[in-house]
Amino acid sequence: MSVGVPASVSDDRGGVTVEAAFAVASLVSVAVLCAAGVLVVLGQLRCVDAAREAARLAARGDDRAAASAAGRVGPAGARLELRREGRLVVARVVADSALPGVAVSAESVALEEPGLR
Asked: Is residue 61 part of a domain?
């Protein structure tokens, strides 16, 4: 006859290790999602800057420099769409973000400078 810990109590061995592993995995997942969220926000800000620069340059009549600036200032793989609505130049910059399936974009409007037409 053995004296010691009953069988029902000894079955819990290793439970704390499993719980700690789940906690660590959850913390890592949350940290990765937070980092991806920060990258998405930074990409959005770069799109805003790129759209502003592109609209300003296109309003001066330099569409080539606008496309170059959007590629330089915007996030990697950013696409520029320019359109004119009367005397307004609308620049839209779209790019893929750090999160799959999420795109960031920004639009800026500038008034054409006098004497361009």
From this structure: yes
